[in-house]
Specification:
The longest helix is centred in the first third of the chain and has 22 residues. Helix 1 runs antiparallel to helix 2, helix 2 runs antiparallel to helix 3 and helix 3 runs antiparallel to helix 4. This protein is 71% helix and 0% strand. It is mainly α. The chain starts with a helix and ends in an 8-residue tail after the last helix.
Length: 91
């Protein structure tokens, strides 16, 4: 049980650092947007549908801010899931 708590703590720390990167995205055309979405897919084993939704939302100047907010919420929800032990594995 102690190992699981420590492992989850490490995952939460890793995802919290990742969340800060997402929050620092500057706007439409920020070259880090796409790479961070891909990194999120790998870190969280996020389904392709969710990834495509985030990418689509961030794909135009008119929807980029909405996409960033949704991306942040997805990462925050993932962290919450880890803290409640709903997520079994983080690659």
């Amino acid at each position: 049980m102690g190992f699981l708590v420590m492992e989850n703590s490490s995952k939460i720390s890793k995802m919290s650092t990742f969340l800060q990167k997402v929050k620092q995205l500057r706007g439409f055309g920020d070259m880090d947007s796409y790479s961070l979405v891909r990194e999120f897919k790998n870190l969280g084993n996020v389904p392709d549908e969710a990834i495509h939704g985030i990418i689509e939302d961030m794909a135009s100047p008119q929807t980029w801010n909405f996409g960033k907010i949704a991306f942040i919420q997805n990462v925050e929800n993932f962290i919450q899931d880890i803290s409640t032990n709903k997520v079994a594995e983080l690659s």
